[in-house]
Amino acid sequence: MAFTVAEMFVGMKPYSWYNVTYPVGRNGANYFDDVCLVQLLLSYLRPYVPELQRPALEPLRVDGICGPITESYINAFALSPLNT
Which of 39, 49, 72, 82 has the fewest beta carbons closer than 10 A? Predict the structure, then answer.
């Protein structure tokens, strides 16, 4: 189940961290909340990550189902320099 952790550092506004509990993707547990969070974050990152802007990628819907479209986004994101 996806969860949020709120932290506050001295001199800063409260900040929330978002995390998944179980793996999402091929051979992952793919729990609804975890998949929704991954889909939401990938959708948010699409305009900023060139690997996610490929025309071959169909639009990603936040539906909690880790199907072929979600897996293609996960694979594309895995190729981005953000993972190095």
Answer: 82
19 to 6, 16, 23, 37: CA distances (angstroms): 11, 10, 10, 8
Nearest to 74 by CA among 43, 33, 47, 48: 43
What are the tokens at 52? 């996610």
DSSP structure class, residue 16: E
Supply φ then ψ for residue 5, to 5 degrees: -120, 125
Phi and psi at residue 36, to the nearest 5°: -60, -45
End-to-end Cα separation, the chain, in angstroms: 26
8-19 pLDDT, tens digit each: 777 778 777 788
Whole-number Å distance between alpha carbons of 41 and 8: 22
DSSP classification of residue 23: -
> Whole-model pTM?
0.84
